[in-house]
Hints:
Layout: H1 2-68, E1 71-77, H2 86-95, E2 105-111, H3 116-129, H4 131-136, E3 139-143, H5 163-183, E4 189-192, E5 197-199, H6 203-213, E6 220-222, E7 231-234, H7 235-247, H8 254-264, E8 278-280, E9 315-319, H9 330-333, E10 341-343, E11 351-360, E12 364-369, E13 383-393, E14 399-409, E15 414-418, E16 426-433, E17 441-449
Parallel strand pairs: 1-2, 1-4, 2-3
Antiparallel strand pairs: 4-7, 5-8, 6-7, 9-11, 10-17, 11-16, 12-15, 12-17, 13-14, 13-16
Helix pairs in contact: 5-7
Amino acid sequence: MARGCCRxxxxxxxxxxxxxxxxxxxxxxxxxxxxxxxxxFQNYQKEDSTRRARRHQEMSQWNATKQKLWLTIGIPTxxxxxxxxxxxxxxSLVNHLPGHGTYGVSIIxxxxxxxxxxxxxxxxxxxxxxxxxxxxxxxxxxxxxETLYTPLSSLKRTFNDSKQRVWWRxxxxxxxxxxxxxxAQRSQYYLHLEDDVITVxxxxxxxxxxxxxxxRTWTMLEFSTLGFIGKFFKSRDVQRLSSLxxxxxxxxxxxxxxxxxxxxxxxMNRFIRIPSLFQHRGHFSSMPNLIRNVTEPSSRFPAxxxxxxGNNPDATVLTSMSTWMSFKPExxxxxxxxxxxxxxxxxxxxxYTLIFKLPQKVSRLVVLTGKPHTNLVDFLHGGTLEVGTxxxxxxxxxxxxxxxxxxxxxxxxCIDITVLSEFKTIKCLKITVTKKQxxxxxxREIAVFN
Length: 450
């Protein structure tokens, strides 16, 4: 009996002390847990503040970089059947940046080819060839969406271009519009290039220096006289140009539309840096089966001297041909150097007419067409020169040359004739286009000798 009581007493004592130990252990566990929880909370708070600080620093750096971004260079590209020039274009740009650096410049390559395999090839090649520059963000690659080309399903023919050419130039307008819309507001300025050009060393500083030298309000500066190469804009105007190209994509080529845009923006004169900063190197055009041997002229253009400088009595100039920019019709008849008439693609039947204010006894007539220093560019492919002995009024505001006689035909864009003595006096002369031509037309000098 005593042994059983002892056992029960020992059990009661053990149970009493066991409860106390368990409570102590529980208290210690709770304390350690709360301490760990508090430490975790402090570490989380510290980590969160560090994360916020790091994110704030990254955002500040990004904003600083965004503020420093001075120029975005847009380059549209497609696969060409025979030769690709994009890599040499990018190498030229990157190697000729100041100090080979990326400060303030971004190059956007827009892949505009509709074939998926081609797009992947371009992306792979660019990433491998220019990996450090793609990784740093200097070169960014984007693609046009397939939905962009929905409007190309039904196109009207303009400028008497073939269906293939109309499709090609309409797509080009949509491509340029997409690229410009993407680049708008990414930097202070935007420079549009093509994917087959090279540039001169230190071209960024040359752009800045020329921009500072232009002391008039401008919308576009030109660093190449060719097509849509080297066109430089303020970014705030790029979105407007993008909209214009998108709206009138089917009407005219981009290098025609750009000059309507300038007129809308009240820039009536061209600002072209001579010599240019970009040289066209592509032999095979992005348009299938088209070869383009077009290079930047080495001589200053359009500076030239009038060769003959005739007597050129007072006359009124009439023409059915459109005028490109500030190269007015009367400049062809002017005796001042560097003045000429430049028209977009003429059509058969178009005319250029001089109505003399007084009847003239004319002994010699000279007409020169074509680009100065290189006659066989933008020259008159086929035309006649007529003289008229009377002037007919068709309406209150419209007059024309009448009683016409053909005195000569243009050969390689020029004509130089002695007027027959049978014409005692003439009141007018008329140049008429007689052959279709795809190029533009320059009439750079008309010399009338008494």
